[in-house]
Amino acid sequence: MATTPPVSEGFIPFQGHRTWFRVVGKEEGAGKLPLLCLHGGPGATWHHMEPYEALAEGRRVIFYDQLGCGKSAVDDPHDPSMWTTDLFVREVQAVRDALGLDRVHVLGHSWGGMLGMLYAIGQPEGLASLIVESSPASVPEWMGELARLRGELPPEVQATLVMHEEAGTTDTPEYDEAVMVFYMRHLCRADPWPDFLNRTFQALLANPEVYYTMNGPSEFHVIGVIKDFDVTGDLGRIRVPTLLFSGRYDEVTPATMERVHQGIPGSEFVIFEQSSHTSQGEEPEAVLDLVRGFLGRVEADQAGQAG
């Protein structure tokens, strides 16, 4: 009979505030390494990474709410200009240092994968592998693909989106309804949505400052800090084994992910044919099998090299 791995939670001091973390599992079995999960947004919470708890099989799986998000919310007066990509890169290292993750795999979804790529480009010590789920290396380039997907929406939906974006009224129910048409096609095609995804959006809407500052009002109207994000020219600096995957109907389109694949030497790229942007909720068992197999191969290869 399978046993439920232990869970521990706590806070790490960071930038004068606190970063909340959750560790599933207690220690690593022989030859295994912990897995650190980076959530999306920017400004979401760890909840959409919840399916990866299943990988706590003889390894710790670590989640955290990035600063300003969820249980790591910043309540005291602060300057919203603090929300930068550099801040969140430094937070990854702070979490590793605080939890003693000397050697670790990193898995990031959406913005989390962008953050993971940026972190790996810095070639930090002890990074064993990188897993990137549905993440662009260049937001300006990705915008062209998003425009194509928007152009495939019903004309009345497109008109509603444009009207509210031009008027600055993206906080209206009409805009939300139009956005949902896009989301049901390209964010998550499961109906109903998984509970973990609903909880992610509930937490984001309860505290949207980071999302609005760094991203914008929706997944496909990116007008915040990350609108100029582009690490395409630096992808060759990622020298660890890298797995990329996304969905056939993903808002981060297969063409967008192919560019990442071309840029990272030796990377693997898998497309889930029945998924959009949340394949861990749309084809969960296949995704877990893919990641589990990749981790096992990396660890076996690295053990062989050490031997």
Keywords for this structure?
10 helices, 307 residues, globular, alpha/beta, 8-stranded mixed beta sheet, 39% helix
Description:
The protein is an alpha/beta fold. It is built from 10 helices and 8 strands. It has helices at 85-99, 111-121, 139-151, 155-167, 173-186, 195-206, 209-214, 254-263, 279-282, 284-306; strands at 7-14, 17-24, 35-38, 61-64, 104-109, 127-133, 242-247, 268-272. It has an 8-stranded mixed β-sheet with strand order 1-2-4-3-5-6-7-8, with helices on both faces. Strand 5 (104-109), helix 2 and strand 6 (127-133) form a beta-alpha-beta unit. The longest helix has 23 residues, at 284-306. The mean pLDDT is 95.
Spatial ordering of strands, largest sheet = 1-2-4-3-5-6-7-8
- What is the succession of H and E elements? EEEEHEHEHHHHHEHEHH
**Approximate shape:** globular
Low-confidence stretches: none
Number of strands: 8
Q: Structural class from helices and strands?
A: alpha/beta
Could you tell me the mean pLDDT? 95
Distance between the termini: 34 Å
Strand content: 15-25%
Rounded radius of gyration (Å)? 19 Å
List the helices and strands and how they pair.
Layout: E1 7-14, E2 17-24, E3 35-38, E4 61-64, H1 85-99, E5 104-109, H2 111-121, E6 127-133, H3 139-151, H4 155-167, H5 173-186, H6 195-206, H7 209-214, E7 242-247, H8 254-263, E8 268-272, H9 279-282, H10 284-306
Parallel strand pairs: 3-4, 3-5, 5-6, 6-7, 7-8
Antiparallel strand pairs: 1-2, 2-4
Helix pairs in contact: 1-2, 4-5
What's the short story on this structure?
This protein is an alpha/beta fold and 307 residues long.
